[in-house]
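One such given next:
>
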Amino acid sequence: MPRVPTSQQTKHRSRKTRKEPYFEKERIKYEYLTIPGDVLSRPFASSFKKNLDPEFVEIPNMSIPKPLRPPPLALCDLECIKTLGQGQYRVLLVRTKRKAHRLDRESFFALKVIPRKVIRKKAIFHAFQPSDEELSIDDPERSNLALLPWNPFIAGLLQTFHDAQNLYLGLEYIPGPTLRSHLRSHNLGLPARDANFYFSNIVCALEFLHSHKIVHRDLKPENFLLGPDGYLVLTDFGTSVRCPNEEIQWKGVGTHFYMAPECHEGMKKIDAHPKDIPYALDWWAAGCVLYELLTGEMAFCEAHEMLTILKAYEELDWPPRVQVSKRTMSFVDDLLEPEPSTGRGCAGGSTE
């Protein structure tokens, strides 16, 4: 017969196998860990300076080190040197004057001043009343540049500021003239080799923007700066837009000398809408800039704006004095094709 355990054996076994809780309120004891002051590291020793027991050693001349990174810049840390440009918005050359941190150094950047009332007027025009917080972010240049990583062909955004009247964009400072100023010194256009070099810079900038779904929409020589190394840098993203975007205004945006035919108001010759092939807008403007680099003249420039628009539908005229290859002429003609679906790099972008 199997052995039946007695009551005492059962009681003893249950006492052995019973699981006690890990914490029991009646057994909790609070113990404090005390560390002598002479073994504390410097950042933590200052908190033990007061109310120390006699056996603890106080470290003399104790100071907490400064942060490794300097604090963000403020408007009061900047000094205005001069005005770089006065277009739709004013651009200032500023430098930092703060010396509070060991990493603070004198640096220069371009400060673009955007009045709040300008953004508010645009918002009211589109039946939208922004708040003060929304005003600080409702700027396409700030929004789009903040999405971009650094690129040598783009003047990047460094920091933003704001006060009660203006928004400020701290941009990379390019100490050089605009491409327009460079063209004025060459009235008859640039040599084909130089024009090819500058246009390759434009292609690199556009390919980078389009890979991040951003359309510039105001490509022209005034918006390209010559850097110290001789390469072009694209600026002024005030009319840029991230695609796809159904709510943005597409027509009538930009400079009409470099504006694609489908962007002109009231023109019914082209059925395509700019939002259907948005990147074609930049390639059209790039073709206009390339023509101007080669000839020293604007591709479409008439006394009246409507005449300029109508000329875009005509065959492109090349001055007899300009000596360029037929391949180059054909390339420019493809970029300045009025129908966006049949040209302008729509098939493969820069690879086309």
Notes: Confidence is low (pLDDT under 50) at residues 21-35, 50-54.
